[in-house]
Amino acid sequence: MLKAALFTLLFGTVAMANDAGCGLGSLIIKQNTKVMQVLAATTNGSFGSQTFGITFGTSNCSANGLVQNEKQIQYFVEVNQEELTREMAAGRGEKISTLAALHGCATQEQITAFNAKAQSAFKTIVPAAKTTAVDFVTNMKSSAVADVCQGS
Fold this sequence. Notes:
The chain is mainly alpha-helical. Helices cover 68% and strands 0% of the residues.
């Protein structure tokens, strides 16, 4: 009876695992067989490395992931908020162009459009002198400034 339950659990997990994704398991287990991917998924689950990796872009988890990109943008705004505010009001500058690139703008045309849209939404993005970096990023999202970068 115990063997049957173990067999069902193992092969049920194999059917669901298919690919363990990122995490410690993907770093130490390179074979993409069902059994090895179950071991990789078990390793990820045992150490919590997949959740941590997805959140912080480590352990073979994509740095292009949504969470990682948002953290990069948040950090960039926190470090450069004063200059970003000044450049956004002017509609041009190195920091605001870098922010455009972080939002996915790949061409100079997209960066210019991003900067112009950010300038026109300036009072929405920075409604007060004491606007926090978190509010700055949230207000940028709600004003859809990064929409000009979609499809890059």
